[in-house]
Amino acid sequence: TILVDDLETYISQYSTYGAIQRLQFIASKTEQKQLKIDSLKLCLDQMKRTTNAKGYMEVYNQLKELMALGEGPQPFCDTVWVEATQKQASVLKDVYESDLHQAKVTQIKETVRTCHTQLTNLCMEQGDYASALKYVSKSREYCSEPQAVVATCMNIIRLGALLRQYSDIQSFASKAHHTPFKDEAGQSKIYAAYGLYYLASGKYKDAAINFAQVKQQDLGPGFNDVICPQDLALYGVLCALASLERGEVQSKLL
């Protein structure tokens, strides 16, 4: 159970997209009205760190409806930000798509990959994770260095987690695992991704073993949309308790 007083501390563990997703989940599941209100208010603040004007309005309307019958001030809707953000996002998309078209004409792989990455990031900011996944998947064709392949796989894993497409997480964790020149941080993220896939698949022993191989300090803030250190510890312990004998806990995890 998440207490209202702990909500900001809990959410601070995650990057913006992970925080938004979890706040929306809490608001949709809790029966505590105040917790629902606080979750939606924090979600509005997080939305303004992105260019997701549509998502901002959806959260605002939920909050407005929830507070309509109560006492106290109604929530503030920043319509100036919404209009300016929508215009800016539209202009940027046109510019980035034009850049991509020109890059394909030149057939310079790294330039094409960079243009796909720009569109991936823009779609993520707008909350359009499906389109972001489409662009980042296409960018794989233009990766000329192993480091770029690993970075692309990590982005797909990140989007797979946000979309709850766990088969993508497993597939691209495997691709990253078999790509040379990974550093320790990259390998830890791969183990964490495998752990999430096995957890979602109900293979708790495999999940526990993979979570145990992750070094928390290697996850970094860029991976906190997928899993944070506290999640890692919690999932690892629960999976181990559910699937391992005492001797296995000592030999594999300690």
TrEMBL record:
Gene Ontology annotations for the cellular component aspect, listed alphabetically: COP9 signalosome; cytoplasm
One Pfam family this sequence matches: RPN7
Location, primary (coarse class): cytoplasm
Domain 26S proteasome regulatory subunit Rpn7 N-terminal: residue ranges: 78-252
Keyword Cell division found: no
SUPFAM superfamilies: TPR-like
Record key words, sorted: Cytoplasm, Nucleus, Signalosome
InterPro entries found in the cross-reference section: Rpn7/CSN1, Rpn7_N, TPR-like_helical_dom_sf
Keyword presence, Nucleus: yes
Annotated compartments: Cytoplasm; Nucleus
Signal peptide region: none
Protein name in UniProt: 26S proteasome regulatory subunit Rpn7 N-terminal domain-containing protein
Organism of derivation: Alexandrium andersonii
